[in-house]
Amino acid sequence: MALVGRGAWTGSAHRPPPVGVGRSLGAVAAAAALPGLGHILLGRRRTGVRVMAIFLGGLGVLALVAVSIGRAGLLRSLVSPGVLVTVTVACVLIMIAWMAVIMWTFVATDPRTRSTRDQVLGAAVAAALCVGVAIPLGATAELANTQRTLLDQVFSPGPAPVAAGGPAAAGPVLPPRLNVLLLGSDAGPDRTGARTDTMIVASLDTRTAATTLFALPRNIEHAPFPPGSPAAARFPDGFHNPRSPTSGDFLLNNVAEYGREHPRLAPAGPTADRGLNLLMSSISTMLGLPMHHYVTVSMEGLAALIDALGGVTVDVGPEPLPIGGVTYSGRHVSPDGYVPAGVQHLDGDQALWYARSRRNSDDYDRMGRQRCLISALIAQKSPADVVTHFQAVAGATAASVTTSIPRSLLPALLALADEHRPVLRSVSFDPDLPDPGTARGRFTPADPDIPFMRRVVRATLAPPVVPAPAPPPVVPAPSPSPSAAARGPTSAPTAVPAPVTVPSTCGATA
């Protein structure tokens, strides 16, 4: 009896007292706030400390890695598919482990000792806390996976990143100037082929992030090709058909399509698209600039991208812009609507028609509006806007953008954008551009002055002229002679020529 009594007393001494519903919910909430804390509150100090040590140790390792790689390393991580896969997997594993700790804490409170109502309440609270933990971690995993998918779909792997004087992980060294051809394809159900009706060369100074946009009209004739190339042999006077001098098939906007139809005349590189290679070689010859990469955006995709970013604000101008109203053949029909005049916040479809409306305006008006739209997007949309709407932006980008920019170049570009505030200016080769070498005194797309275009590019991209410091003032002698005073100063500062400026037109500003 004594043994039985003693055993009964010993068992009751080691059995933990029942946990009330309030204490149970508090422990579960503590586990959701910090894994292991719930166990400590329940008196399971050793288990709780171990769980908490694992969790805090993991956070410490992440913080140490972040500090060691620095801001540049974090930016590289954003465009590293391997790192993004690791982040996705890690978030999923942490989410599962954290939810398991919450439920483990709930079970440790021995809910079977409580009433059915309290058991249901405790289980509901534990499940809700699991969902609260899962939402941010799941969203982070989804965001990282979406970013990885976007990189795989839009950007090619490119060459292995090699930095001069540094490890491969440091990334490639950007050239002093990076020239990217921006193309807008105006293909649609009412059009044949995919002509590049928007052609803008973005020349980026990789030391300051200052960017100059050179807009080229789609109707440039006699587009040149590199000397000695098969295309130059076929078109010695530029892209033109003397048997059909008014044919729209021999304008600059059809060079890419012609190259696809006649691949033997187009260069084999730098891309797999012979048509784009031919267009890039022509524009490079025209402007005297090497074309490093291209970015093509479909017009419909541009509308989706602007919608994903929440719209854009521009000054439409004093008159409303018709939506439609002109067929591909040039016949006027009733517009489907209008983009209102004045300063407007436009959705994607309105912004698209702001950029492409042809009724009551010409190609050069459209070029000005397109440059203004690009400027407005750059000025108004911050990285925070992209992150906030990242899923929609990524979907629109993957569906509408193609580019030859390799993933290995993205870290350096991200670092450049992070270090400098981009400064944007533009030049348009349209009839408003003065050209003293022509009879009209203006640039003529039908007969482009190629040497003049190259001079404009060189003058625009030339570093600004810094005036020489003024010489120190000359202290007059204490007793100047009358004759010396009458003669005045013996020399004057050398005049500094004014810097060359190139006019830039813009139909509307944001």
From TrEMBL:
Q: Which InterPro entries match?
A: LytR/CpsA/Psr_CW_biosynth (IPR050922), LytR_CpsA_psr (IPR004474)
- The name on file for this protein is LCP family protein
Q: Where is the composition biased (Pro residues)?
A: 467-481
Tell whether Signal is among the UniProt keywords.
no
Please report which protein family the annotation says this sequence is part of.
Belongs to the LytR/CpsA/Psr (LCP) family.
Transmembrane region(s):
20-42, 49-70, 82-108, 120-139
**Alphabetically ordered keywords of this record:** Membrane, Transmembrane, Transmembrane helix
Q: Which residue stretches does the UniProt record annotate as biased composition, category Low complexity? A: 482-510
Give start and end of each Cell envelope-related transcriptional attenuator domain. Answer: 195-380
Q: Where is this region: Disordered?
A: 467-510
Organism annotation: Pseudonocardia charpentierae
